Amino acid sequence: MSAGVSAPTFVPLSSPEPGSSWVERWLAACGDLAELERTHPMTDAVIEEIDGRLIRVGDQWLADFASCNYLGFDLDPEIIGVVPEYLRRWGTHPSWSRLLGSPVLYEQIEERLTELLGCEDTLVLPTITLIHLSVIPVLAGNGTIFMDRRAHKTIYEGCQFAAGRGASIKRFCADDLDGLEQLLRTSRLNTRLICIDGVNSMTGNMPDLPALARLARTYDAILYVDDAHGFGVVGERAPDEPTPYGRRGNSIVRHFGESHDNVVLVSGFSKSYSSLAAFIACPTELKTLLKTAASPYLYSGPSPVASLATVLAGFDVNERRGDSIRTDLWHKTATVLDCLDRLGAHTPNRSGLPVIEVPLARHEEIADVGRFLFSHGIYVTLAAYPLVPKDEVGFRIQVTAANTEAELEQLVDVLGKLADRFDLQPARREEGAA
Ligand SMILES: Cc1ncc(COP(=O)(O)O)c(C=O)c1O
Using CA atoms, how far apart are residues 420 and 409, in angstroms rounded to an integer? Predict the structure, then answer.
């Protein structure tokens, strides 16, 4: 999909044609998506210029609702302002792998992150994708992985890697924890790893983390959570919290008041913190093991200095202004959810978090809907088949604190016009504005 936008959950391909190779099956299943990529202005777009959260694609200026920079740190003058001094002191890029030479900036980030998350230790690596590919196989060994069917594509790939090294994979549905318990009960003999998304990258909802953590502890499993979209947005609950997001943005584990026992939390800085780096929160013993057992620490190039600098500056801003930024984000998100509610349109978002999927009544209309939004100056993520099942094809709106009130008014106006012209899925009975 378009640059800077996270890939939605991928729906595994089913019913392979006998005799065809996986590449042929893949290309056949991705036909609609390939056509969209080739012809649609909202996919694979070259962004030539930005002005705040406005972007220019060709001659067209659009309000960007596809960015994951939820806190607006990418545009924050205080954060931008620290970068030149770091570049002066450290150059643009360390170039050593971390095992070879790790600038002290990493130590500083890990110390502050460990304090923020309230966990035993943290390890910073370049991306979540690299963490999944390298850490899931280490944690799973030749045991069993219980993978949420709707987990992010990068978790799928980490699990496939693990399968190549002897792990077996069982899928479960995050809505059916009895089913998961049944699976856990029947495979008690070896290592067990439960892999799930935290804040889901399409629905914006959170799993029942306390119940999953309880199951992990009962069955001596590790709960491996990818909270790419939650870190920076959701955090610990407090009686005086200004929004239901909680305080401090210290991720889904703290949001539910859970301990990190039997839980391995993975997240990144590339969304809320607008920086190229990621982390794993885990016991020190595991961190030590991963330094040699997980390839990115040994072999991968490091994050650029500018990103290490913006993470550190992001911690300062988060501490001083984070809760008021999240309050603003919450209000802005509510504006969009209220609009969908008024239009009688369905969104799976029940959390009030800034990831809002709008499914279409007719999946065949995705390209036309995308063109309509584009021509009305709204940029979103198109969720086409097979990235999502056909009955979920639609678009995803992401709200950031840096979107202006004028951009939100424009979005609300265009959504109204869109609903006059195309059929959105109708709201379900239990829905109301979050
Ligand atoms: C849930 C989830 N996990 C992982 C990733 C990949 O993160 P990274 O870019 O750090 O590899 C994304 C990115 O979009 C995501 O949404």
Answer: 17
Q: Which residues form ligand 1's pocket by a CB distance below 6 Å? A: 6-7, 127-129, 152, 154, 197, 201, 226, 228-229, 268, 270, 278
Tell me which residue has its CA closest to atom 4 in ligand 1.
Answer: 128
Residue 134: closest CA among 291, 241, 273: 291
Name residue, tokens 């309050």: 327
pTM of the model: 0.92
Q: Which residues, at least 6 apart from 18, have a Cβ–Cβ distance to it below 8 Å?
A: none
Other beta carbons less than 10 A from residue 15's beta carbon: 6
Residue 70, SS3?
coil
Give burial (CB, 10 Å; 0-12/13-18/19+) of 166: exposed
**From ligand 1's centre to the CA of 129, what distance in Å?**
6
Alpha-carbon distance 132 to 47, whole Å? 29
DSSP 11-58: PPP-SPPTT--HHHHHHHHTHHHHHHHHH-TTSSPPP-EEETTEEEET
Q: What is the pLDDT of residues 321-343, one digit of tens each?
A: 999 999 999 999 999 999 999 99
* C-alpha span between 97 and 100 (Å, rounded): 5
Q: Tabulate helix, strand, coil % of the chain (nearest 5).
A: 45, 15, 40
pLDDT of 15-68, one tens digit each? 556 667 878 877 777 777 787 877 888 888 999 999 999 999 999 999 999 999
Alpha carbons 158 and 148: distance in angstroms, whole number: 13
- Ligand 1 pocket test: which of 201, 265, 353 has the largest number of ligand atoms within 8 Å of its C-beta? 201
The predicted-structure confidence for 98-134, as pLDDT tens digits, reads as follows 999 999 999 999 999 999 999 999 999 999 999 999 9
CA of 156 relative to ligand 1 center, distance in Å: 12
Atom of ligand 1 nearest to the CA of 154: 4
- Compute the distance between CA of residue 12 and CA of residue 31 in angstroms, rounded to an integer: 15
